[in-house]
Design brief:
The structure is a single chain. This protein is an alpha/beta fold. The protein has three domains: about 5-165 and about 230-295 and about 475-495, Glycogen Phosphorylase B (Rossmann fold, 3-Layer(aba) Sandwich); about 175-220, no CATH class; about 300-455, 3-Layer(aba) Sandwich (Rossmann fold). About 45% of the residues lie in helices and about 15% in strands. The protein has helices at about 10-20, 30-45, 60-65, 70-75, 95-100, 100-125, 150-155, 165-175, 175-180, 230-240, 250-265, 275-280, 300-310, 330-340, 365-370, 380-385, 400-410, 420-430, 445-455, 460-480, 485-495, and strands at about 5, 25, 50-55, 80-85, 135-140, 160-165, 200, 210, 245-250, 270, 315-320, 345-350, 375, 390-395, 410-415, 435. It is globular and about 65 Å long. It binds uridine-5'-diphosphate. Uridine-5'-diphosphate (UDP) binds near residues 32, 319, 321, 348 and 398. Uridine-5'-diphosphate binds near residues 319, 323, 379, 401 and 404. InterPro entries: UDP_glucos_trans, UDP_glycos_trans_CS. Belongs to the UDP-glycosyltransferase family.
Length: about 500
Protein backbone atom coordinates (compact mmCIF):
# COMPACT_ATOMS: atom_id res chain seq x y z
CA UNK A 1 0.00 0.00 0.00
CA UNK A 2 1.30 3.45 -0.90
CA UNK A 3 0.18 7.02 -0.34
CA UNK A 4 0.98 9.74 -2.88
CA UNK A 5 1.76 13.44 -2.70
CA UNK A 6 1.36 15.92 -5.55
CA UNK A 7 3.19 17.61 -7.10
CA UNK A 8 5.93 15.11 -6.44
CA UNK A 9 8.78 17.60 -6.78
CA UNK A 10 8.16 20.46 -4.39
CA UNK A 11 9.57 23.97 -4.65
CA UNK A 12 11.86 23.45 -1.71
CA UNK A 13 12.55 27.11 -0.89
CA UNK A 14 8.90 27.97 -0.75
CA UNK A 15 8.26 24.82 1.27
CA UNK A 16 10.62 26.13 3.91
CA UNK A 17 8.79 29.46 3.99
CA UNK A 18 5.49 27.70 4.46
CA UNK A 19 6.69 25.39 7.17
CA UNK A 20 5.70 27.76 9.98
CA UNK A 21 2.01 27.72 9.01
CA UNK A 22 -0.45 25.53 10.88
CA UNK A 23 -1.21 22.49 8.74
CA UNK A 24 -4.76 21.22 8.06
CA UNK A 25 -5.43 17.95 6.27
CA UNK A 26 -8.80 17.93 4.47
CA UNK A 27 -10.14 14.46 3.69
CA UNK A 28 -12.90 14.50 1.05
CA UNK A 29 -15.37 11.66 0.55
CA UNK A 30 -15.00 10.30 -3.01
CA UNK A 31 -18.01 11.90 -4.74
CA UNK A 32 -18.20 15.06 -6.86
CA UNK A 33 -20.57 16.98 -4.58
CA UNK A 34 -18.53 16.15 -1.45
CA UNK A 35 -15.28 17.15 -3.17
CA UNK A 36 -16.63 20.51 -4.45
CA UNK A 37 -17.89 21.37 -1.01
CA UNK A 38 -14.70 20.36 0.82
CA UNK A 39 -12.56 22.18 -1.76
CA UNK A 40 -14.48 25.39 -1.10
CA UNK A 41 -13.93 25.00 2.63
CA UNK A 42 -10.23 24.23 2.10
CA UNK A 43 -9.82 27.36 -0.04
CA UNK A 44 -11.49 29.49 2.61
CA UNK A 45 -9.25 28.04 5.32
CA UNK A 46 -6.19 28.56 3.13
CA UNK A 47 -7.14 32.22 2.78
CA UNK A 48 -7.04 32.36 6.58
CA UNK A 49 -3.35 31.45 6.53
CA UNK A 50 -3.33 27.66 6.87
CA UNK A 51 -1.14 25.17 5.02
CA UNK A 52 -3.56 22.73 3.39
CA UNK A 53 -3.16 19.14 2.25
CA UNK A 54 -6.27 18.09 0.32
CA UNK A 55 -6.71 14.32 0.21
CA UNK A 56 -8.68 12.33 -2.37
CA UNK A 57 -8.78 8.63 -3.02
CA UNK A 58 -6.41 7.41 -5.77
CA UNK A 59 -9.36 6.59 -8.00
CA UNK A 60 -10.80 10.11 -7.86
CA UNK A 61 -7.34 11.61 -8.25
CA UNK A 62 -6.77 9.61 -11.42
CA UNK A 63 -10.15 10.72 -12.80
CA UNK A 64 -9.06 14.34 -12.27
CA UNK A 65 -5.80 13.63 -14.07
CA UNK A 66 -7.84 12.72 -17.15
CA UNK A 67 -9.60 16.11 -17.21
CA UNK A 68 -7.21 18.84 -18.45
CA UNK A 69 -9.02 21.63 -16.51
CA UNK A 70 -8.79 19.77 -13.22
CA UNK A 71 -5.25 18.66 -13.95
CA UNK A 72 -3.87 22.21 -13.71
CA UNK A 73 -5.57 22.69 -10.32
CA UNK A 74 -3.72 19.65 -9.02
CA UNK A 75 -0.45 21.58 -9.33
CA UNK A 76 -1.67 23.26 -6.16
CA UNK A 77 0.32 26.06 -4.52
CA UNK A 78 3.40 25.80 -2.30
CA UNK A 79 1.11 25.75 0.71
CA UNK A 80 -1.89 24.00 -0.84
CA UNK A 81 -0.98 20.43 -1.71
CA UNK A 82 -2.82 17.36 -2.87
CA UNK A 83 -2.35 13.80 -1.69
CA UNK A 84 -4.18 10.57 -2.37
CA UNK A 85 -4.75 7.27 -0.63
CA UNK A 86 -5.78 3.89 -2.01
CA UNK A 87 -9.42 2.90 -1.51
CA UNK A 88 -8.41 -0.76 -1.53
CA UNK A 89 -10.00 -1.49 -4.90
CA UNK A 90 -7.24 -1.64 -7.47
CA UNK A 91 -6.14 -1.53 -10.20
CA UNK A 92 -7.84 1.78 -10.98
CA UNK A 93 -9.71 1.04 -14.17
CA UNK A 94 -10.70 -2.54 -13.45
CA UNK A 95 -12.28 -1.37 -10.22
CA UNK A 96 -14.83 0.93 -11.89
CA UNK A 97 -17.62 -1.61 -11.72
CA UNK A 98 -17.17 -2.05 -7.96
CA UNK A 99 -17.32 1.69 -7.48
CA UNK A 100 -20.70 1.93 -9.15
CA UNK A 101 -22.08 -0.47 -6.56
CA UNK A 102 -22.53 2.31 -3.99
CA UNK A 103 -23.33 0.15 -0.90
CA UNK A 104 -20.41 -2.21 -1.35
CA UNK A 105 -18.04 0.53 -2.41
CA UNK A 106 -18.95 2.56 0.68
CA UNK A 107 -18.29 -0.49 2.81
CA UNK A 108 -14.94 -1.07 1.12
CA UNK A 109 -13.91 2.50 1.90
CA UNK A 110 -14.94 2.12 5.52
CA UNK A 111 -12.85 -1.04 5.80
CA UNK A 112 -9.83 -0.15 3.69
CA UNK A 113 -9.22 3.54 4.24
CA UNK A 114 -8.44 3.63 8.01
CA UNK A 115 -5.07 1.99 7.34
CA UNK A 116 -4.18 4.07 4.27
CA UNK A 117 -5.16 7.33 5.97
CA UNK A 118 -3.09 6.41 9.02
CA UNK A 119 -0.12 5.76 6.75
CA UNK A 120 -0.53 9.17 5.09
CA UNK A 121 -0.88 11.05 8.35
CA UNK A 122 2.07 9.22 9.91
CA UNK A 123 4.25 10.05 6.90
CA UNK A 124 3.34 13.74 7.18
CA UNK A 125 4.17 13.79 10.85
CA UNK A 126 7.48 11.97 10.49
CA UNK A 127 10.36 14.45 10.03
CA UNK A 128 12.44 11.68 8.44
CA UNK A 129 9.88 10.67 5.83
CA UNK A 130 11.07 13.28 3.32
CA UNK A 131 7.52 14.60 2.87
CA UNK A 132 7.94 18.40 2.62
CA UNK A 133 5.05 19.55 4.82
CA UNK A 134 4.76 20.96 8.35
CA UNK A 135 3.46 18.59 11.07
CA UNK A 136 -0.32 18.21 11.03
CA UNK A 137 -2.28 20.39 13.47
CA UNK A 138 -5.79 19.23 12.68
CA UNK A 139 -7.73 16.97 10.33
CA UNK A 140 -10.91 18.26 8.70
CA UNK A 141 -12.76 15.17 7.61
CA UNK A 142 -15.94 14.77 5.60
CA UNK A 143 -18.33 13.36 8.20
CA UNK A 144 -19.12 10.57 5.74
CA UNK A 145 -15.42 9.62 5.80
CA UNK A 146 -15.30 8.87 9.52
CA UNK A 147 -12.55 6.31 8.85
CA UNK A 148 -10.15 9.18 9.63
CA UNK A 149 -10.95 8.79 13.34
CA UNK A 150 -8.73 5.72 13.59
CA UNK A 151 -5.62 7.69 12.58
CA UNK A 152 -6.36 10.88 14.50
CA UNK A 153 -7.05 8.94 17.70
CA UNK A 154 -3.78 6.98 17.32
CA UNK A 155 -1.71 10.11 16.62
CA UNK A 156 -3.52 12.40 19.04
CA UNK A 157 -4.58 14.93 16.37
CA UNK A 158 -7.91 16.83 16.59
CA UNK A 159 -10.46 15.72 14.01
CA UNK A 160 -13.15 18.20 13.00
CA UNK A 161 -16.00 16.75 10.94
CA UNK A 162 -17.37 18.69 7.99
CA UNK A 163 -20.91 17.87 6.91
CA UNK A 164 -21.39 18.75 3.23
CA UNK A 165 -25.10 17.82 3.45
CA UNK A 166 -27.93 19.87 4.87
CA UNK A 167 -28.47 19.82 8.62
CA UNK A 168 -31.95 18.35 7.97
CA UNK A 169 -30.26 15.62 5.91
CA UNK A 170 -27.73 14.90 8.64
CA UNK A 171 -30.41 14.67 11.33
CA UNK A 172 -32.67 12.58 9.11
CA UNK A 173 -29.83 10.02 8.90
CA UNK A 174 -28.97 10.39 12.59
CA UNK A 175 -32.52 9.70 13.80
CA UNK A 176 -32.75 6.46 11.76
CA UNK A 177 -31.21 4.70 14.75
CA UNK A 178 -34.10 5.80 16.94
CA UNK A 179 -36.69 4.96 14.28
CA UNK A 180 -35.23 1.47 14.20
CA UNK A 181 -35.53 1.23 17.99
CA UNK A 182 -39.13 2.48 17.74
CA UNK A 183 -39.84 -0.34 15.23
CA UNK A 184 -40.78 2.11 12.45
CA UNK A 185 -37.96 1.04 10.15
CA UNK A 186 -37.03 -1.14 8.36
CA UNK A 187 -40.23 -1.94 6.43
CA UNK A 188 -42.14 -5.05 7.53
CA UNK A 189 -42.64 -6.20 3.95
CA UNK A 190 -42.30 -5.02 0.37
CA UNK A 191 -46.04 -4.25 0.48
CA UNK A 192 -45.26 -1.27 2.72
CA UNK A 193 -43.99 0.49 -0.39
CA UNK A 194 -47.48 0.56 -1.88
CA UNK A 195 -50.02 0.01 0.94
CA UNK A 196 -49.99 3.54 2.36
CA UNK A 197 -47.31 2.88 4.98
CA UNK A 198 -45.11 5.50 3.33
CA UNK A 199 -47.73 8.12 4.35
CA UNK A 200 -47.23 7.36 8.08
CA UNK A 201 -46.48 10.55 9.98
CA UNK A 202 -43.00 10.64 11.50
CA UNK A 203 -42.74 12.92 14.51
CA UNK A 204 -40.77 13.26 17.75
CA UNK A 205 -37.48 14.00 16.03
CA UNK A 206 -36.15 17.05 17.93
CA UNK A 207 -35.49 20.02 15.69
CA UNK A 208 -37.29 18.48 12.71
CA UNK A 209 -40.73 19.12 11.28
CA UNK A 210 -43.29 16.32 11.09
CA UNK A 211 -42.92 14.51 7.79
CA UNK A 212 -44.31 11.48 6.02
CA UNK A 213 -42.35 8.26 5.92
CA UNK A 214 -41.85 8.88 2.18
CA UNK A 215 -39.92 12.07 3.03
CA UNK A 216 -37.31 10.13 5.00
CA UNK A 217 -34.05 9.14 3.36
CA UNK A 218 -34.59 6.59 0.59
CA UNK A 219 -32.22 4.29 2.51
CA UNK A 220 -35.03 3.34 4.93
CA UNK A 221 -37.01 1.69 2.12
CA UNK A 222 -35.70 -1.76 2.88
CA UNK A 223 -36.97 -4.79 4.76
CA UNK A 224 -33.44 -5.76 5.75
CA UNK A 225 -32.29 -4.64 9.19
CA UNK A 226 -28.71 -5.33 8.09
CA UNK A 227 -29.01 -3.19 4.96
CA UNK A 228 -25.53 -1.79 4.25
CA UNK A 229 -26.44 1.82 3.45
CA UNK A 230 -29.00 2.14 6.23
CA UNK A 231 -26.46 0.95 8.78
CA UNK A 232 -23.68 3.04 7.27
CA UNK A 233 -25.62 6.31 7.54
CA UNK A 234 -26.46 5.50 11.15
CA UNK A 235 -22.83 4.63 11.97
CA UNK A 236 -21.37 7.61 10.12
CA UNK A 237 -23.67 10.22 11.65
CA UNK A 238 -23.25 8.76 15.15
CA UNK A 239 -19.45 8.73 14.71
CA UNK A 240 -19.70 12.52 14.91
CA UNK A 241 -19.84 12.12 18.71
CA UNK A 242 -16.13 11.29 18.51
CA UNK A 243 -15.27 14.37 16.46
CA UNK A 244 -13.63 17.40 18.07
CA UNK A 245 -16.27 19.67 16.49
CA UNK A 246 -18.79 19.68 13.63
CA UNK A 247 -18.92 22.12 10.73
CA UNK A 248 -22.09 22.43 8.62
CA UNK A 249 -22.40 23.83 5.12
CA UNK A 250 -25.48 25.81 6.08
CA UNK A 251 -26.39 29.08 7.73
CA UNK A 252 -28.34 29.84 10.89
CA UNK A 253 -31.29 31.63 9.27
CA UNK A 254 -32.01 28.66 7.03
CA UNK A 255 -31.73 25.74 9.45
CA UNK A 256 -31.87 27.28 12.89
CA UNK A 257 -34.02 24.73 14.85
CA UNK A 258 -32.04 21.91 13.26
CA UNK A 259 -28.72 23.47 14.21
CA UNK A 260 -29.98 23.98 17.75
CA UNK A 261 -30.88 20.29 17.96
CA UNK A 262 -27.39 19.34 16.76
CA UNK A 263 -25.78 21.70 19.27
CA UNK A 264 -27.62 20.01 22.11
CA UNK A 265 -26.44 16.53 21.12
CA UNK A 266 -23.08 16.79 19.37
CA UNK A 267 -19.61 18.25 19.96
CA UNK A 268 -19.42 22.04 19.31
CA UNK A 269 -21.30 22.92 16.11
CA UNK A 270 -20.37 25.68 13.64
CA UNK A 271 -22.48 26.66 10.62
CA UNK A 272 -20.21 28.33 8.09
CA UNK A 273 -22.15 28.14 4.83
CA UNK A 274 -23.21 28.38 2.17
CA UNK A 275 -19.72 27.37 1.12
CA UNK A 276 -20.35 28.16 -2.55
CA UNK A 277 -20.79 31.83 -1.54
CA UNK A 278 -18.17 32.01 1.19
CA UNK A 279 -15.52 30.84 -1.24
CA UNK A 280 -16.43 33.83 -3.44
CA UNK A 281 -15.61 36.23 -0.63
CA UNK A 282 -12.00 35.12 -0.38
CA UNK A 283 -9.98 38.36 -0.69
CA UNK A 284 -8.87 38.96 -4.29
CA UNK A 285 -5.23 39.35 -3.31
CA UNK A 286 -5.21 35.86 -1.83
CA UNK A 287 -3.30 33.37 -4.01
CA UNK A 288 -6.13 30.88 -3.65
CA UNK A 289 -8.77 33.28 -5.05
CA UNK A 290 -8.07 32.26 -8.66
CA UNK A 291 -7.43 28.63 -7.87
CA UNK A 292 -9.27 26.20 -10.15
CA UNK A 293 -11.86 23.54 -9.58
CA UNK A 294 -11.90 19.77 -9.63
CA UNK A 295 -14.37 18.29 -12.11
CA UNK A 296 -14.83 14.62 -12.90
CA UNK A 297 -16.34 15.64 -16.28
CA UNK A 298 -15.32 18.37 -18.71
CA UNK A 299 -17.38 21.54 -18.34
CA UNK A 300 -19.18 22.87 -21.42
CA UNK A 301 -19.01 26.67 -21.45
CA UNK A 302 -20.95 26.80 -24.73
CA UNK A 303 -24.16 26.65 -22.71
CA UNK A 304 -23.33 29.99 -21.07
CA UNK A 305 -23.03 31.61 -24.51
CA UNK A 306 -26.38 30.08 -25.44
CA UNK A 307 -27.92 31.54 -22.27
CA UNK A 308 -26.50 34.97 -23.19
CA UNK A 309 -28.96 35.05 -26.11
CA UNK A 310 -32.01 34.31 -23.97
CA UNK A 311 -34.49 36.63 -22.25
CA UNK A 312 -34.10 37.13 -18.46
CA UNK A 313 -35.80 34.42 -16.41
CA UNK A 314 -36.94 32.51 -19.51
CA UNK A 315 -34.86 29.30 -19.26
CA UNK A 316 -35.44 26.23 -17.09
CA UNK A 317 -32.16 24.57 -16.07
CA UNK A 318 -32.32 20.78 -15.63
CA UNK A 319 -29.61 18.79 -13.89
CA UNK A 320 -29.66 15.65 -11.74
CA UNK A 321 -26.16 16.01 -10.25
CA UNK A 322 -23.28 13.57 -10.36
CA UNK A 323 -24.77 10.33 -9.02
CA UNK A 324 -28.51 10.06 -9.72
CA UNK A 325 -29.64 7.56 -12.33
CA UNK A 326 -32.76 7.52 -14.49
CA UNK A 327 -34.38 4.65 -16.33
CA UNK A 328 -34.87 5.17 -20.08
CA UNK A 329 -38.61 5.55 -19.38
CA UNK A 330 -38.03 8.29 -16.82
CA UNK A 331 -35.68 10.07 -19.21
CA UNK A 332 -38.41 10.08 -21.85
CA UNK A 333 -41.07 11.34 -19.43
CA UNK A 334 -38.82 14.27 -18.49
CA UNK A 335 -37.94 14.89 -22.13
CA UNK A 336 -41.57 15.01 -23.32
CA UNK A 337 -42.61 17.04 -20.28
CA UNK A 338 -39.97 19.60 -21.23
CA UNK A 339 -41.06 19.53 -24.86
CA UNK A 340 -44.76 19.89 -24.01
CA UNK A 341 -44.13 22.79 -21.60
CA UNK A 342 -43.10 24.98 -24.54
CA UNK A 343 -40.41 26.46 -22.28
CA UNK A 344 -36.74 27.03 -23.21
CA UNK A 345 -34.43 24.70 -21.29
CA UNK A 346 -30.81 23.79 -20.69
CA UNK A 347 -30.41 20.12 -19.77
CA UNK A 348 -27.17 18.47 -18.61
CA UNK A 349 -27.30 14.74 -19.28
CA UNK A 350 -24.25 12.98 -17.83
CA UNK A 351 -22.84 10.13 -19.95
CA UNK A 352 -23.82 7.69 -17.17
CA UNK A 353 -27.18 9.28 -16.25
CA UNK A 354 -29.31 6.47 -17.65
CA UNK A 355 -29.06 3.10 -15.94
CA UNK A 356 -27.29 0.51 -18.06
CA UNK A 357 -26.97 2.49 -21.25
CA UNK A 358 -26.64 5.71 -23.17
CA UNK A 359 -29.28 8.42 -22.92
CA UNK A 360 -31.07 8.22 -26.24
CA UNK A 361 -33.54 10.97 -27.05
CA UNK A 362 -35.75 10.51 -30.11
CA UNK A 363 -35.19 12.62 -33.22
CA UNK A 364 -38.74 13.92 -32.88
CA UNK A 365 -37.86 15.41 -29.48
CA UNK A 366 -34.92 17.32 -30.97
CA UNK A 367 -37.12 18.61 -33.78
CA UNK A 368 -39.94 19.68 -31.45
CA UNK A 369 -37.61 21.59 -29.10
CA UNK A 370 -35.26 23.00 -31.75
CA UNK A 371 -34.21 26.57 -31.00
CA UNK A 372 -35.31 26.44 -27.36
CA UNK A 373 -33.20 23.58 -26.03
CA UNK A 374 -29.54 23.09 -25.22
CA UNK A 375 -28.36 19.65 -24.22
CA UNK A 376 -24.92 19.10 -22.78
CA UNK A 377 -23.28 16.58 -20.47
CA UNK A 378 -21.73 18.70 -17.69
CA UNK A 379 -21.80 22.44 -17.22
CA UNK A 380 -20.37 25.14 -14.92
CA UNK A 381 -23.44 24.91 -12.69
CA UNK A 382 -22.84 27.86 -10.40
CA UNK A 383 -22.36 30.15 -13.41
CA UNK A 384 -25.45 28.75 -15.07
CA UNK A 385 -27.63 29.25 -11.99
CA UNK A 386 -26.38 32.82 -11.58
CA UNK A 387 -27.13 33.66 -15.22
CA UNK A 388 -29.97 36.17 -15.63
CA UNK A 389 -31.64 33.97 -18.27
CA UNK A 390 -32.24 31.12 -15.79
CA UNK A 391 -35.68 31.34 -14.18
CA UNK A 392 -36.02 27.89 -12.61
CA UNK A 393 -34.12 24.74 -11.74
CA UNK A 394 -35.38 21.17 -12.12
CA UNK A 395 -33.13 19.39 -9.64
CA UNK A 396 -32.53 16.07 -7.86
CA UNK A 397 -32.11 18.10 -4.61
CA UNK A 398 -28.44 17.43 -3.86
CA UNK A 399 -27.39 19.86 -1.13
CA UNK A 400 -24.78 21.65 -3.24
CA UNK A 401 -27.32 22.19 -5.99
CA UNK A 402 -29.80 23.58 -3.47
CA UNK A 403 -27.35 25.96 -1.82
CA UNK A 404 -26.17 27.10 -5.26
CA UNK A 405 -29.78 27.66 -6.31
CA UNK A 406 -30.60 29.59 -3.12
CA UNK A 407 -27.45 31.66 -3.58
CA UNK A 408 -28.65 32.58 -7.06
CA UNK A 409 -32.26 33.22 -5.96
CA UNK A 410 -33.63 30.52 -8.29
CA UNK A 411 -36.80 28.54 -7.36
CA UNK A 412 -36.91 24.79 -7.95
CA UNK A 413 -38.87 21.83 -9.21
CA UNK A 414 -37.76 18.84 -7.17
CA UNK A 415 -37.32 15.23 -8.13
CA UNK A 416 -35.32 13.73 -5.25
CA UNK A 417 -33.42 10.59 -6.10
CA UNK A 418 -31.76 9.16 -2.99
CA UNK A 419 -29.85 9.78 0.25
CA UNK A 420 -30.68 13.13 1.87
CA UNK A 421 -32.53 14.37 -1.23
CA UNK A 422 -36.02 13.33 -0.05
CA UNK A 423 -35.82 15.34 3.17
CA UNK A 424 -34.12 18.25 1.37
CA UNK A 425 -37.08 18.30 -1.00
CA UNK A 426 -39.56 18.38 1.90
CA UNK A 427 -37.80 21.37 3.47
CA UNK A 428 -37.57 23.16 0.10
CA UNK A 429 -41.30 22.74 -0.53
CA UNK A 430 -42.83 22.93 2.97
CA UNK A 431 -40.46 25.06 5.04
CA UNK A 432 -38.51 27.36 2.74
CA UNK A 433 -41.32 27.75 0.17
CA UNK A 434 -39.07 27.74 -2.87
CA UNK A 435 -39.99 24.56 -4.71
CA UNK A 436 -42.60 22.08 -5.92
CA UNK A 437 -42.19 18.33 -5.93
CA UNK A 438 -42.66 16.01 -8.90
CA UNK A 439 -44.14 12.62 -8.10
CA UNK A 440 -41.58 9.82 -7.79
CA UNK A 441 -43.34 8.02 -10.62
CA UNK A 442 -42.62 10.83 -13.03
CA UNK A 443 -45.13 11.52 -15.81
CA UNK A 444 -44.75 13.99 -18.67
CA UNK A 445 -48.09 15.75 -17.97
CA UNK A 446 -47.03 16.61 -14.43
CA UNK A 447 -43.58 17.74 -15.57
CA UNK A 448 -45.12 20.09 -18.15
CA UNK A 449 -47.72 21.36 -15.67
CA UNK A 450 -45.19 22.18 -12.96
CA UNK A 451 -42.84 23.86 -15.41
CA UNK A 452 -45.73 26.04 -16.59
CA UNK A 453 -46.60 26.86 -12.97
CA UNK A 454 -42.99 27.69 -12.04
CA UNK A 455 -42.05 29.67 -15.13
CA UNK A 456 -45.33 31.47 -15.89
CA UNK A 457 -47.77 31.01 -13.00
CA UNK A 458 -48.61 33.00 -9.87
CA UNK A 459 -47.12 30.28 -7.64
CA UNK A 460 -43.86 30.61 -9.59
CA UNK A 461 -43.79 34.36 -8.92
CA UNK A 462 -44.32 33.79 -5.19
CA UNK A 463 -41.55 31.19 -5.08
CA UNK A 464 -39.19 33.47 -7.00
CA UNK A 465 -39.83 36.22 -4.43
CA UNK A 466 -39.16 33.81 -1.57
CA UNK A 467 -36.03 32.48 -3.30
CA UNK A 468 -34.70 36.03 -3.57
CA UNK A 469 -35.37 36.61 0.11
CA UNK A 470 -33.37 33.48 0.97
CA UNK A 471 -30.65 34.61 -1.43
CA UNK A 472 -30.35 37.86 0.49
CA UNK A 473 -30.11 36.01 3.80
CA UNK A 474 -27.47 33.69 2.33
CA UNK A 475 -25.41 36.70 1.22
CA UNK A 476 -25.83 38.29 4.65
CA UNK A 477 -24.34 35.17 6.25
CA UNK A 478 -21.53 34.78 3.71
CA UNK A 479 -20.42 38.37 3.16
CA UNK A 480 -17.28 39.65 4.86
CA UNK A 481 -18.13 40.03 8.56
CA UNK A 482 -21.33 37.95 8.18
CA UNK A 483 -22.50 35.22 10.57
CA UNK A 484 -20.71 32.40 8.77
CA UNK A 485 -17.34 34.20 8.82
CA UNK A 486 -17.82 34.97 12.50
CA UNK A 487 -18.48 31.26 13.13
CA UNK A 488 -15.43 30.35 11.08
CA UNK A 489 -13.23 32.68 13.13
CA UNK A 490 -14.63 31.09 16.30
CA UNK A 491 -13.92 27.63 14.93
CA UNK A 492 -10.33 28.61 14.18
CA UNK A 493 -9.77 30.22 17.57
CA UNK A 494 -11.68 27.83 19.83
CA UNK A 495 -10.93 24.54 18.09
CA UNK A 496 -8.34 24.49 15.30
CA UNK A 497 -5.58 26.64 16.78
CA UNK A 498 -6.45 26.11 20.45
CA UNK A 499 -3.28 25.24 22.36
N1 LIG B 1 -22.21 20.21 -10.99
C1 LIG B 1 -21.58 20.89 -11.99
N2 LIG B 1 -22.00 20.68 -13.27
C2 LIG B 1 -23.01 19.83 -13.60
C3 LIG B 1 -23.65 19.13 -12.54
C4 LIG B 1 -23.23 19.36 -11.24
O1 LIG B 1 -20.67 21.68 -11.75
O2 LIG B 1 -23.34 19.70 -14.79
C5 LIG B 1 -21.77 20.42 -9.60
C6 LIG B 1 -22.79 21.25 -8.84
O3 LIG B 1 -22.52 22.63 -9.02
C7 LIG B 1 -22.62 20.75 -7.42
C8 LIG B 1 -22.15 19.31 -7.58
O4 LIG B 1 -21.69 19.18 -8.92
O5 LIG B 1 -21.61 21.51 -6.77
C9 LIG B 1 -23.26 18.31 -7.34
O6 LIG B 1 -23.47 18.20 -5.98
P1 LIG B 1 -24.90 17.93 -5.36
O7 LIG B 1 -24.72 17.91 -3.88
O8 LIG B 1 -25.87 18.92 -5.87
O9 LIG B 1 -25.35 16.54 -5.92
P2 LIG B 1 -24.61 15.10 -6.03
O10 LIG B 1 -23.85 15.13 -7.28
O11 LIG B 1 -23.75 14.95 -4.81
O12 LIG B 1 -25.76 14.16 -6.06
Amino acid sequence: MHVSFYPRQGKQDQDMECSTKAHLVCMAAPAQGHINSMLNLAKVLHSKGFFITFVNTDFVHHRFLKNPESLSSLDGLPDFRFASIPDGISPFNDGDEHRQDIPNYSLAIKNNCPASFLKLLSAMNDPNSGVPVPPVNCVISDCFASFTLNATAKLGIPNVFYCPSSVCGFLDFYYCKELMERGIIPLKSEDDLTNGYLDTVIDRRPGMIEVRMRDLTSFVRTTNREDILLNLIIDETHASHQATAMIFNSFSELESPLLDACSSMLPPVFDVGPMCLLSQYIPNDSAIALFGRLNLWKEDFGCVEWLDEKEPGSVLYVNFGSMANLTSEQLLEFAWGLADSGCAFLWAIRPDLVVGGTALLPQEFSETTKGRSFITSWCPQQRVLSHAAVGGFLTHCGWNSITESISAGVPMICWPFFGDQQINCRYICSVWGIGMEINEDVKREEVARLIEKLMRGQKGKEMKKKAMEWQEKAFEAAKAGGGSWINLERLIKEIITKE
